[in-house]
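Researcher: Sequence of carnitine O-palmitoyltransferase follows. Predict its structure.
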Amino acid sequence: TLRISWHTRFMRIWRHLLLWLLQTNNYSVFESALQLISHLIAVFPCSKYVTEEGQRIVGGVLIGTGLWIAVTFVMRNVLKYLLSWHGWMFNRHGSLSLTTKIWLVLVKVCSGPKPMLYSFQNSIPRLPVQAFSLLFKIIKSRPLMDDEQYKRMEGLAKDFEKNLGPKLQWYLKLKSWWASNYVSDWWEEYIYLRGRGPIMVNSNYYAMDFLYVIPTTRQAARAGNSIHAIMMYRRKLDRAQIKPLMVLNTIPMCSSQYERMFNTSRVPGVETDVLQHMNESKHIAVYHKGRFFKVWLFYDGRLLLPREIEQQIERILADKSEPHPGEELLAALTAGDRDPWAKARSQFFSRGKNKQSLDSVEKAAFFVTLDDTEQRYDPENSVQSLDSYGKSLLHGKCYDRWFDKSFNLIVFKNGTMGLNAEHSWADAPIVGHLWEHVLSSDPVRLGYTEDGHCKGNPHPNLPGPQRLQWDIPEEGQAVINSSLKVAKALADDVDMHIIPFNDFGKGLIKKCKTSPDGFIQIALQLAHFRDKGKFCLTYEASMTRLFREGRTETVRSCTTQTCDFVRAMMNDKATLKLLKVAAEKHQDLYRLAMTGKGIDRHLFCLYLVSKYLGEDSAFLKEVLSEPWRLSTSQTPLQQVDLFDIKRHPEYVTSGGGFGPVADDGYGVSYIILGEDLINFHISSKHSSPETDSHRFGSNIRQAMLDMLDLFQFDNKASNK
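Model: Prediction complete. Tokens:
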């Protein structure tokens, strides 16, 4: 995709240059250069075959091309230098310094008028390797250590910095000089692809539909519009026509994660999985009631229209054939442990019709499940309906989603839909960007007829979907059943709870002159302390896409300042000042993480280097062994211009969520929608006596309300 986009851009500029040269008669600018070119051409035999006018045109083209290349090279490197400065991030919220304003103007000038998706890739700076002084932020944040533990950790850190640390750091810097990003390839391999446990619940995540509306209750029609919208997004992606995401509408973020969104599948291996990416795929794989179908999305050289895709889905829904032996539960292999799936794939799916059918699934553009259950938000039964909906998207029946695909589109019987995405190829904001485009296209741009069908007409000669054929022996079916048993135990243990918090939202928090994300993170700490009576190591995901091939960094949001505020709240001694100090500390940590000054990815890479060299570090081992009992993430709403939430509040999305990271911990995802709504997605495990998602949800709601009271009391006192 990157190669195509630059080639297209180069050819467009080349044509403009030729046109300009052919239309102008004034070559005085190039006169001296053309004389030199004329002498050079005269040396070669071809000069007698080229007229003087032709030589002038060739010379002008060569000089123009050279100038264009030189200017492009200079502008790209100037932009790279500008983007290496991150002082803009530390401006006070809502205001920009003069330096930042001048810097933004320079970035805009160097960016060009209409940048394409991959236009900035060579200008985005590399992630730097931080100095060791940053590692001491770990021991300076003391909420989880008593005096004795602190003293011990301080000693381990100083010993590491003096002895083993410099050696590991040298190897890491050496890698940073030749790698585009010294973290991302190791992060993908060791955190995701080498994991041998189930990726269902433990790694995959989900995205929900609109919260309040279902544009049509016809399952086939909703699938038709959504599949067409996804393929239109892929077309724009292939042509690099999607506008790159930019902070402050000026500062570009890396777009490399988009490259494997489609035609990608995670293939299991005995020691490590691999990501299989096809350059192009013209079909999707569809699952319905235990059968797999291959559906071509192109006919007569064009993409099928929404009504034509609906026609194909209707044919699948009307198909009454029975599943082949083992076919109905086949996808459970992707939900269980990885090693049994890798061995079964090699033993039972490496030849014949099984290989051909598996290829059709793994090489599909994406996977579609036509779910035979009904899910949606029911205002009269809000808790149970949303919890059921979230669990269904996270794991379903454990055999009706192909968890290895880059993403699954799930369309329920009543027209509600959602996504389940595999995590190794990209992070949630990338999938969220696709999903926002799909949701905005579905009811508004594409729309439906009065009776709920896609607009347009069925195709009279369209060949039907192809039923995939399987011949799975009894030994293979035994492996499938074993994987299903593992997956079912994991799925049944998930305690999911979703809260649409509408008491107040971003609008009121901003009036209190506090960061909404900081406010929510402090509320989570207060809720957790009330829930468990203690603090815990807390993970908040922050993106590092201001750097080339950046993915995420950790914000350790359980800080000393936050703990001070929580303790004060528990003793009814909290003040607005304590809250604002805690929120500002959180924002500083978030800014450091975004600008490449985080510590956890650095520590992770130092640990990998130590294992490669066969060196043991007590400091690294201790720092990295503590579990994240509270794992949190904000789902960003990046394309707010696609939705007019003020005029159409019914089109708010429910956001998305993920499973618990620790067996005795919570996973919390939240999305800030408009000015007055925040959706929380909470997960934990029933098997843990310490956790209860519904109890934690109640504590989050109460913590949010109690913290708001601080502002209200402060305002009343000011008025008096």
